[in-house]
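Q: Structure tokens for this one, please.
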Amino acid sequence: MTTVNINLPTVAAVQKFVERISPLSGQFDLLSDEYILDAKSLMGIFRFDLTKPIKLRIEKDTAEIMMAIKSFIVDEPSVGHEIQTVLEDTDE
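A: Here is the predicted structure, written as tokens:
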């Protein structure tokens, strides 16, 4: 089981995401503090605040699945990355 953060900022992005995962086998859940919803549910996704990344829990993270959702995955910078960026900025 894998959990990634995804970004679905527009109605079109939500539709494309659901179209990509719907034919795939396995369980896909969207998680928030209040909800756990089926990620294949177009209407369910709109219960989330789409201005923020959403946690997606994937039952089986096969290469096919990860390729299908690759464009929706967002990376949150780690603390180490932020420190490195600050250090690089001060070197100038």
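A few notes: The first strand starts at residue 2 and ends at 6. Residues 2-90 form a domain with the Histidine-containing Protein; Chain: A; fold (CATH 3.30.1340.10).
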